[in-house]
Design goal:
The complex is a heterodimer of chains A (327) and B (327). The C terminus of chain A is likely disordered. Chain A is mainly α. Chain A has one domain: Orthogonal Bundle (MetI-like fold), CATH 1.10.3720. Chain B is of the alpha/beta class and 327 residues long. In chain B, helix 4 packs across helix 5 and helix 7 runs parallel beside helix 8. The longest helix of chain B is centred in the middle third of the chain and has 17 residues. The radius of gyration of chain B is 21 Å and the shape is globular. The model of chain B has no long low-confidence stretch (mean pLDDT 88). The chains are: A mainly alpha (327), B alpha/beta (327). At the A-B interface, helix 9 and helix 10 of A face helix 2, helix 4 and helix 7 of B. Chain A: InterPro entries: BPD_transp_1_N (IPR045621), MetI-like (IPR000515), MetI-like_sf (IPR035906). Chain A: It holds the Pfam family BPD_transp_1. Chain A: One of its GO terms (cellular component) is plasma membrane. Chain A: Keywords: Cell membrane, Membrane, Transmembrane, Transmembrane helix, Transport.
């Protein structure tokens, strides 16, 4: 177990180094950083001084090393656009995105697994067919359209929920602000969370259903029936646990993409998260923010994958090669 | 005379399909006495496994019992509620499947699967269930049962896993064990051990066995009586000695002629020309008539019912009809 985890951690570090290289390359290939930082009137001498100060004349390896050592300490430089430390910008935007991802991810997981199991067990029922048909909408409609439709129905026509923003927030720490504690914050979460989670939910549901149907056909489920176990024990003890092995992988990656690709939802709802920060930075060629965003998303994926692999290991005893006596 | 443990009367199993109803079992009747080993032979698709699945109530939909009855100690079990049937499965009728590699849930230890089954059927505590499970594993020949019980299925070899499966089928002390090709997936070297084990352990507990196989050698060594199925109908049933030494049905004669023996002089095996008809193309009259060497007029017109012969044997063949002999 320890050796396995250690090996996976080393692999993760390697992946992060490659991503860092790509992020670093952004600085060198997306325009001249000095041009982006200074105004039209800056003299050539000042520009030269800035270049030296930034270390742009150092060899590539030295620059890359400096970039990494600073990144590890959380220093990604100063945003060209907002003239503030990148890390501070990201930290101030991160809670909004994480709270949104947490709510929509949890809802997508619970409802997805619930509906998936229900439709697999009642394959021919009217309700199952209804759910399956509706789920096609979730899979096929683009996110921005769902968002706009929800705004139109629930914010414009019915006026039940706010159409944009995060509502009132409460500061928990110097940088963590939460919308969970105020009524307007909670109300504001609903529409973006539904928009972001609908696709994930239908995806998880269809996956769980397909896997569950597969597992229900296996010999060990048939044997469990032949032993006279209760329906409950067969469905939730034997079948569901086996269903979860492949589902865990997909859900881990989906959680990553909820955080990473909330850009569209955040844009539609003007949600003050890192997705909208990124899209505005791209418009302004704000390379430090883009590089930091890239690194952060990669880190999230790597960490989730690491957790998924370790979960796999806990769920499936066949992976624990070193445990038990082989006969 | 003792009453039969299991009586199957005129069993008919149908599969409704888009192109009409397929009759997979048609008018199958036989008895199993307490403690008796009944062999069931036939080609693939003859309906051996379906007979077993019908008895234990695990026909795969859309298959259904369309006629006849199944009685366990004089009580019908083919039309009782799913919940009542669940209490029969495992408790009164145990089942051993063909492939031990897929019959056990890979995510649970052997201990968990055994105690779960024991506690479903018997009113015992968890520690008592575990004690019984260890004793049973020991009895089926798992070395160091007390230690191995906490292993996962993948820690066991194929033969050992089939022993675990047998322990699982027997753990609630059923009166009847249905063994569906229990050795087909195993190494030839362990096949005999497993067959001996099933026979011994069932004899100890006075459990009857219905042994489904296509291996006449296994039947000859193990069974008391043998039933021969052909195209979903019973061709012949009688004591193993009678059927093997003096087969009466032309199909059984062909079947015996196709088995190589060491003592026989001839070096050519007899094969039956043609193949078993598909379920949607069973000829009128006797299902075997197109391949039979002794067909006469009546065989293509009328379906023969089992005809009683000396020593409790029954043969479904017009050759043995008294009326024909006398008239």
């Amino acid at each position: 177990m320890l050796a396995y985890s250690l090996r996976r951690v080393l692999q993760s570090i390697l992946v992060m180094l490659v991503v860092a290289l790509i992020s670093f390359a952004l600085f060198r290939f997306v325009g001249d950083p000095v041009n982006s930082m200074v105004g039209q009137e800056t003299s050539l001498a000042d520009r030269e001084a800035l270049r030296r100060q930034l270390g742009l004349y150092d060899p590539f390896v030295v620059q890359f090393w400096n970039f990494i050592t600073r990144a590890v300490q959380g220093d990604f430089g100063i945003s060209y656009r907002l003239q503030e430390p990148v890390m501070k910008l990201i930290l101030s935007r991160l809670p909004a995105t994480l709270e949104l991802a947490l709510v929509s991810g949890t809802a997508a997981f619970i409802l997805g697994v619930g509906f998936g199991v229900y439709t697999a067990l009642n394959r021919r029922g009217l309700a199952s067919n209804g759910i399956m048909t509706l789920s096609l909408i979730g899979v096929s409609l683009p996110t921005f359209l769902i968002g706009v439709l929800l705004i139109w129905v629930f914010a414009v026509e019915l006026k039940w929920l706010p159409s944009f923003g995060r509502g009132d927030t409460v500061a928990l720490t110097s940088w963590w602000t939460t919308g969970f504690l105020t009524p307007s914050g909670r109300a504001s979460l609903v529409l973006p969370a539904v928009t972001l989670g609908l696709y994930q939910m239908t995806l998880i549901m269809r996956l769980v259903r397909a896997e569950m149907l597969e597992v229900l056909r296996t010999d060990y489920v048939k044997f469990a029936r032949a032993r006279g176990l209760s329906q409950r024990a067969i469905h939730f003890g034997h079948a569901l646990k086996n269903t979860m092995v492949p589902v865990i992988t997909v859900m881990g990656l989906q959680l990553g993409s909820i955080i990473a690709f909330s850009i569209i939802t955040e844009t539609v709802f003007q949600w003050p998260g890192i997705g909208s920060l990124f899209i505005n930075s791209v418009k302004a060629v704000d390379v430090p923010v883009m590089a930091a965003y890239l690194m952060m998303i990669a880190a999230i994926f790597v960490i989730i994958n690491l957790i998924v692999d370790i979960l796999y290991y806990i769920v499936d005893p066949r992976l624990r090669l070193d445990g038990g006596g082989k006969h | 005379m003792t009453k039969p443990l299991l009586s199957v009367r005129d069993l008919k199993v149908e599969f409704p399909t888009r192109r009409g109803v397929l009759t997979a079992l048609n008018g199958v009747s036989f008895d199993i006495m307490p403690g008796e080993v009944l062999g069931m032979v036939g080609e693939s698709g003859a309906g051996k496994s379906l007979t077993g699945a019908s008895i234990i109530g695990l026909l795969e939909p859309p298959g259904r019992i369309a006629g006849g009855e199944i009685l366990l100690k004089g009580e019908r079990i083919d039309n009782i509620s799913p919940d009542a049937m669940r209490k029969v499965r495992g408790k009164r009728i145990g089942m051993v499947f063909q492939d031990p590699l897929t019959s056990l849930n890979p995510l649970y230890t052997v201990a968990k699967q055994l105690t779960e089954t024991i506690m479903t059927h018997l009113p015992v505590s968890a520690s008592e269930a575990r004690r019984r499970a260890i004793a049973l594993l020991d009895r089926v020949g798992i070395p160091a049962a007390a230690r191995r019980i906490d292993d996962y299925p993948h820690h066991f070899s194929g033969g050992m896993r089939q022993r675990v499966v047998i322990a699982l089928a027997l753990c609630a002390e059923p009166e009847l064990v249905i063994a569906d090709e229990p050795t087909t997936a195993l190494d030839v070297s362990v096949q005999a051990q497993i067959i001996d084990l099933i026979k011994e352990i069932c004899a100890e507990r006075n459990a009857a066995v219905m042994l489904i196989t296509h291996d006449m050698g296994v039947i000859a060594e193990t069974a008391d009586r043998v039933a021969v199925l052909y195209a979903g109908r019973l061709a012949e049933i009688g004591t193993v000695h009678d059927v093997i030494t003096r087969p009466e049905h032309p199909y059984t004669q062909g079947l015996m002629g196709s088995i190589p023996t060491l003592t026989q002089e001839s070096d050519r095996l007899i094969s039956i020309p043609g193949s078993m008809p598909r379920l949607n193309a069973i000829p009128p009259g006797c299902a075997f008539n197109p391949r039979c060497t002794q067909t006469f007029g009546r065989c293509t017109a009328e379906r023969p019912d089992p005809i009683a012969r000396p020593n409790g044997r029954q043969v479904a063949c017009w050759l043995y009809d008294e009326e024909k002999a006398h008239g």
